[in-house]
What does this fold into?
Amino acid sequence: MCESEVARLRSQIQQELEAMQRGLYGLALGSARHEFIRRRMDYLGSCQQQLACQVGEEKAMQLMYALYVQVVG
It folds into this structure.
């Protein structure tokens, strides 16, 4: 496991979650908002897959959940 890669992915995931949260409450309406959030979710899925390659599926899901709760919760 490369800890610097895991740290980079965690940081990226946190930034994407923050962007999604801002997108929910920003000025965009309708399909523009949905497209913005969909793209963020697609990217988060990619980050989770990369994280799973580093730490395993279960640990990746735990980290994703913890970051989600920290940022959104």
In short: Residues 30-55 form the longest helix (26 residues). The chain has one domain: 3-71. The chain has a mean pLDDT of 87.
